[in-house]
Amino acid sequence: MKEFLLRNLHGDVEGTCSGKVGFIICVLTVTNISPGKVLPSSGLAEFVVHYQAIVFKPYKGEVVDAIVTSVNQIGFFADVGPLQVFVAQKLMPNDFKFDSNGPCYRGDDQMIEKNGQVRLKIVGLKHQATQINAVGTIKEDYLGQIQ
Amino acid sequence: MSRNDSDRDEDEEFENLGRSQDNQDEDSDLEESPRRTSSSKKPPRSSSSSNSKRREEEDDEDEDDDDDEDDEDDDEEEADNVSRRHKKQKRNFNPFLDMEAEVDDEDEDEDEDEESYGGPDGFIADETDEAAEATRASKHMDLDRRRREEDDVDLEEQAARLKERYGRRDYAPRRAFQGQQEDIPQQLLMPDVQSPHLWMVRCKPGKEKDLVFSLMRKFFDTEYSAQPLEISAAFSRESLKGYVYIECMRQANVQAALNGLNNVFASKLTLVPIKEMTDVLKVRHKESELRPGTWVRVKRGKYAMDLAQILDIADSGDTAKVKLIPRLDMTPRSDASYIAGNNKRKQVNSALAGRPPPKLFNAREAEKVDKLNKPTSRGRGVFVWANEVFREGYLEKDMKISSLITESINPTLDEIQKFAKGGVDDEDGGLDLSAVALSAMSTSVTGHFQPGENVEVMEGELKNERGTVDSVNGDMVLVRVWDDKLKGNILKFPPTQLRKLFKEGDHVKVVNGKFKDETGLIIKIEDSVVTIVTDLNVKDIQVFSKDLQMAANVASGTGTIGQYETHDFVQLDASTVGVIYKVERGFARVLDQSGLTREVEPHLITQKRDSSRAIATDGEGNSIQDGDSVREMGGSMREGKILHVFRTFAFCYNREYMENAGVFVQSTRLLVSMASKSRSQPGMRLDTMNPAMMNMNRGGFNNRGGRGGGMMMMGRGRGGRDPLIDKTVTIIRGPHKGYLGIVKDASDLTARVELHTNCRIITVEKAKLAITNANGTTTPVSSMPDMSAPSTPRAGNYGGYGGYGGMTPMRSGDMTPMHPSGSRTPAWNAGSKTPAWNAGSKTPAWSASARTPNPYADGSQTPAWDAGSKTPRYGGSSAWDSGSRTPAHSAWDAGSRTPARGSAWGDSDSSSSHNQNGSSSGSGGFPQTPAASGDWMNRGVPTPGPFGAPSPAPFSSYPYTPGPSSSYDSAPTPSSNNFPSTPAASSSLGSGGGPGGHHAGSNGGAHSASVATPGATPGASNARLQSISTPGANQTPQTPAGGPSAPMTPASHFPQTPFMPTGGDYSGMDSHHGHSGGQVHGYGSGAGGAQGAAGPSYDWTTTDIEVKISTGKDGSSYEGGKYNDVSGRMVKIPPRSALSSMALCDVRLLSGPDDRKVIQIPVQYLKPVAPLKNDGVKVLSGEHRGALGTLMGVDVQDGIVSLRGENMYKVLTMSVLGKYLGE
Predict the structure, then answer these.
(1) Potential cystine with B1178: which of B28, B411, B680, B1220 (Cβ 3.0-4.6 Å)?
(2) Where is it localised (chain A) (predicted)?
(3) Which runs of consecutive H residues, i.e. helices, occur in B794-835?
(4) Could you give the CA distance from residue B548 to residue B1220 in angstroms, rounded to a whole number?
């Protein structure tokens, strides 16, 4: 029974995202499993499970490393693990220009293209029930392509 | 009382006021009294001493006019003394008088007060003079002494002492009092009955200023004369034309002043009431709000509602110089007398109707327009033309502020940009976006500030201060300031001084303007202009911060417009559908099926469509539908998710594409389902086919050929006039049996008949009608095809044809009313049980019923049936349906692998008709090699289901066609399915077709073969399988469709089908096959083709290719079929000029009884053999005719050929490739 619950917990919770706590990466320990409560009108039972988990909750101002997933005219999207971050062209250093061959952004000594690695700072977060979106910037010192 | 007196009285009052305060404050009293004493020590300057004393007070209180003092200086000493005494007395006698009350009294009733204690005071003062004098003297001495002492003391000490003495003084009450005092002079300045009166005098409009100046001159002239002008002022108001104001004491003075002046109507003098005198000169506050740079609109005239920018405001405050985009009439003025003034007036009159469009002034153009009045240049970029000044192309014009709209201008960005375009004058300080924002801001109301919002102060003392809006009160915004010093204070600000404060990264919503309702994250803030990235389509937009609001949730799509929302599938007009990809204010942007975008207002959208059940086939033959992920096969290889499927178009969405907000449209043929892998397994596929027979007939089918069917039907089936109309009929059954009438209107099942007897129109089922022929006989309507057949060219009963369309398309179902019923009728079900073919084979019954003397209906053959639209239709349908149910069907299906299919319907992307598809699919079946059919078998055998299912389809439609319906219905025995089995019959069918007469043989062959197949199977799937196993049988049903259809029936729709071009070839082949009784191997194009009416030739003949000997087009075989199926190598071919069906070719046999022998054989018995992969090939026709190469691969109907001597691969149709046997 306990095993089943744990399995369900892992299955249901890991890899999900809630606006409140962020992305639940991994359930570490289960601290408490309440006695089951059979729901009226169905044979299902409800258990309240308290658990500890590793979560990824991005904060505004956090500097993260990300992998670029797509590049287009208005900016690029990058993934920080499960989090998708958008970096608008306005939030890139001024010398970054869009180059449709690639497509990529070319700066004086940097190039941002798909699958490239970038370090960026989160400037805005959008929490939704099951999703978090972020807007990042690389227009600051020490941000940008990771060589 | 003289003016001076009154002045003094006022002074006294001030002193009293001051003193009243002194009384309240002992220190000041002490300070003052010695001073007074000292002043009394200097009798000559007593008045000045009083002045100086008063000055001290004034310094303290910062009040009172110098004028008054000057007046006072001029006073005689006595007068002063009198007043002094008066004061003393007052102090002595009323030390505890509440002076404030007294002041109030005086304020209210000045005159009374003056009189009340003016006289008596003086009288009393005389009595107390000495005592007062004594006190004063002692006080003066005291002061002198103290001054001396002070001189001795160190300055620092003195300062300290002063501080000690005055430092703890609370000035608040004094200050408060000052405030009260401020009011007094204001009020005292107000005109009263004593002051000069103001007269308003009519004058000639426009001459006001002249008049005022002449009055002034007159005043100076007469100033030192005996009779000076006794007026104190004269002025005029710009806003009030035709009047001057003159200020003087008496009316007579006005008349005297105006005497002798022109342009004035002195007879009309109006006294301005005292209360209104100030209003005359009041400057309206509103006007002062206009600053250079603000935007206004013109109220009326040529520029009505045009945006204008104020450049300058006249001193008077009622006119402003504005900058406009000129609306000039640039039509050349040929008439020299057409002067500008005239022109102007005319334009004003025509008002808005014909006003020229706004356009920047261009001097060169103007020159051309009016040769007489060229624009004169006044410095750089400045021109004067037609009495108007143009600078940098803009018109500068003086306008009355009253003719401008100054409030709630809300200039759009477009308008403003027009002003920015021509470069902005330096004096305006440039026109950047923030300035625009500012001006936009200033015209906006408080409404956009919400309690709780963060704001920043933009101007004034508290600039850059930040705070939170506490509340909005009228037009003031109450802001709780964050700053430490002012913390907690709520300050009032006008909204113009505030701007909303956001931080980068804030999630905001646009509440106004073009991007209304978008939400997004702020990525950049520059003053009032904020750049945000929208949530919906990740685009950066710029908006004014005033238009933003913090937003918690993401906009649920820029939402909805009316009942439509983003990504809805909408019908725009009969032929256009589209998907809304963006909703903007007041309209939606729609991408239609042709890839064009348009802006549509919601009321122009006909309806919302539902594509949730629509299915289409992708480029690999897999079915795709809404929600599937697809990728483009070529081009930019875009990927996306299907939003909607429409016919052969799929609207896809991928948010990563910027164009059209990620929505794009593509033909389904050019898409590949990304989930196709599993489906493309043959087994899988058939599985989907089987239950999907419905789909085949409705959805899927539809998507391929069906849509064409729908089209056809629309064009003809529906458009065709029911042949029954206007016929005289007899009702043969039912309550009206025996009645005679004329058919007025007819639908599929019923007819409206006007009875001869009582002129009533009744609705009767068609089946109950019989047509009365000229000779008195009747024909049941059930045999109506007879009727229509003779008029073949019209291809009369397309109703029947339409039936097909009707059955198929669920989506074109709306065009074919019969569809729904069709799918529901018992016929359908019955059909699904009885082999369709059987039903078809009931025909004899039908023909039997055709007992009419119709010449065509000879015997049971009823050529009409065949020759009319019936046969091809029938053929087509059978081909089609058999296509979907018999081997042919598999062929059709598997057709993706046969060349034929490709050329037939694979290509017919656009609007291939149903029919054509049927036939083409049929023809597709033919080229099927045994392998293909075997393939088919594999799939077909395990699943007999589909065979049953589709077959009834065509028949289910029959009931709706006037003719066959009843005949089928009445056909009682399935056994009658032998009917066409006699070649004779079928050949006669063929001949009935007229033009196709010489095809009779082939048709007959085909037909008989067809009968042989399904006809033999009254429903047993086993039998069916057997029939399937005979390839010949399989294909035959198509024969009539493929073969004769194209060339034979000129009136039919076939010629229109894209199938036509290839039709020749295939029809030839088809018929050929029919003859050969199911030879599937003959892939080739030609041998039989010669017989086809349109059959092109034997062009293909060339040497060194492998050929196969088979039956000729006329059914004959070379040497009795001895060599049939023998392959050979072309050794020698006849010259092209001599090419005919009987032209002899030398062929070296490669197999059979006479191996290696070279025989001469007419070309009609030959067919090229299709090459296999890696075979050497020779191109038989086309551009590369004769070229040699290797077949690298086969892709559907195309072969990929590596031609010798060329590096590139060529993609050539398999039909033009022959198997090359040379080196």
Answers:
(1) B1220
(2) Nucleus
(3) 798-807, 818-824, 826-833
(4) 75
Contact B656 A72 (CB under 8 A): yes
- Which residue, among B521, B535, B543, B639, would best test binding to A if mutated, counting the most A CBs under 10 Å from its CB? B521
Do A123 and B539 lie within an 8 Å CB cutoff? no
Distance from CA of B495 to the nearest CA of A (A): 28
Name which of B506, B531, B554 is nearest A90 (Cβ-Cβ): B531
- The pTM score is 0.34
Look at residue B282 and tell me whether its pLDDT is greater than 60.
Answer: yes
CATH number for the domain running over A63-145? 2.40.50.140
Q: Residue holding tokens 């409404």?
A: B447
Using alpha carbons, list the distances in angstroms from residue B1145 to B950, B966, B1132, B1152: 45, 53, 6, 18
Dihedral pair phi/psi, residue B144, rounded to 5°: -55, -45
So what's the pLDDT on residue A121?
92
Which two structure tokens, joined as six digits, stand for B288?
Answer: 């002062």
DSSP, collapsed to helix, strand or coil, labels residue B407 as coil
Q: Is the peptide bond before B173 cis (omega within 30 degrees of 0)?
A: no
Question: pLDDT at position A63, please?
Answer: 93
- A69 at interface of B, judged by CB pairs closer than 8 A: no
Q: Which residue of A has its CA nearest to B521?
A: A124
pLDDT of residue A118: 92
Cβ–Cβ below 8 Å for B522 and A75: no
Residue A137: list chain B partners with CB under 8 A.
523
Asked if B1200 contacts B1192 with a C-beta cutoff of 8 angstroms, the reply is yes
A98 CB within 8 Å of a chain B CB: no
pLDDT digits (tens, 9 = 90+) for A44-100: 888 899 999 999 988 888 999 999 998 888 888 899 888 888 888 888 888 888 888
- Angle at which helices B914-925 and B798-807 pack, to 10 degrees? 80
**Stretch B1023-1030: mean pLDDT:** 35
- DSSP H or E segment with residue B785: helix B784-788
Pairwise CB contact (< 8 Å): A126 & B505? no
Domain borders along chain A are: 2-56, 63-145
CB B940, CB B887: distance < 8 Å: yes
Q: Count Cβ atoms within 10 A of the Cβ of residue B636 and give its class: 0-12 exposed, 13-18 middle, 19 or more buried.
A: exposed
* Out of B507, B535, B658, closest to residue A73 by CB: B658
| Torsion, CA B100, CA B105, CA B110, CA B113, rounded to 10 | -100
A73 touches chain B (CB under 8 A): yes
> Which residue in chain A is spatially nearest to B553 when comparing CA positions?
A128
